[in-house]
Amino acid sequence: MVGSPKPLWIVANFKSHETIQESIEWISTVGPHVEDRPEVQIIVCPTFTSLAEVKHAAMVGNYRLQIGSQDISPFEEGAYTGEEAAPLLKELANYAIIGHSERRTNFQETDEMVAKKVAMATEAGITPIVCVQGAETPVPDGCTVVAYEPVFAIGTGTPDTPQNANEVATKLKEKYGQDLNVLYGGSVTEENIKAFLEQDLINGSLIGGASLDPEQFLRILEVVYKQNRG
Ligand code: PGA
């Protein structure tokens, strides 16, 4: 890609992994290497139990890391036992992953619930990162960032092809507007991320397994920064 660097979102999704201590160590390993570049957002999404400590560690270190949650309540603050309401999460997170296929499969999350969660997030000033499993997954109003994550590619070591990911991004943009930013997720590694970021319409990546080891994630960041410099 030539010309000015495109905006990128690189998202580390810890899923149900990493203790508080491990998460803090991750922050202190990765944080110092996050560059002060407004066009590249590095977002870490730890477990709910680690969010407060992670935010604190990022603040104390004065790192340019953004913090995200892995889900958000579809309800307002109130009598919803076990839920994390958007106005409360806002104290800890600027971003929220919403509608991950693991939530759709294991927790029966529907497109309607996803839309409610997106509405709650945006109202609270949290940027939703909505996971779509293909161009046919509905993208709710108010979304600016989506992650295309085909189920066959998640945690399998078999990513989609960069060309197909770009095709899906093309379709999503045709449907929802050219301003929609499309990330790719599913078995992204330090070896293959470059090929995805080279695609015209891919604006970053959602990374699960390969984000857990901070050293491995740093190697991914190296590729991201190098490529984005052109
Ligand atoms: P993976 O997960 O990188 O381990 O395939 C990606 C995701 O599910 O967000």
Task: Please tag this protein with its features.
alpha/beta, 8 strands, eight-stranded parallel β-barrel, single chain, binds 2-phosphoglycolic acid, globular, 8 helices, 17% strand, 230 residues
Structure description:
The model has no long low-confidence stretch (mean pLDDT 97). Helix 1 (20-30) packs parallel to helix 2 and helix 1 packs parallel to helix 8. This protein has eight helices and eight strands. It is of the alpha/beta class. The termini are close together. The longest helix is centred in the last third of the chain and has 15 residues, at 162-176. Strands 1-2-3-4-5-6-7-8 form an eight-stranded parallel β-barrel, surrounded by four helices. Residues 13, 149, 154-155, 185-188, 206-210 line the site of 2-phosphoglycolic acid.
Query: Would you report the number of β strands?
Result: 8
Structural class: alpha/beta
Q: Characterize the largest beta sheet: strand count, sense, and whether it forms a barrel.
A: 8 strands, parallel, barrel
Q: Helix tally?
A: 8
* Proportion of strand residues: 15-25%
The helix-strand sequence is: EHEHEHEHHEEHEHEH
The low-confidence parts are none
- Global shape: globular
Strand order of the largest sheet: 1-2-3-4-5-6-7-8
- Give the CA-CA distance, first to last residue: 7 Å
- Bound small-molecule species: 2-phosphoglycolic acid
Helix content: 25-40%
Radius of gyration: 16 Å
Mean pLDDT: 97
Task: Describe the structure concisely for a colleague.
The protein has 230 residues and is of the alpha/beta class. The protein has helices spanning 20-30, 51-60, 86-89, 101-106, 111-124, 162-176, 193-197, 214-228; strands spanning 8-13, 40-45, 66-69, 95-98, 127-132, 145-148, 181-185, 204-207. The relative contact order is 0.16.
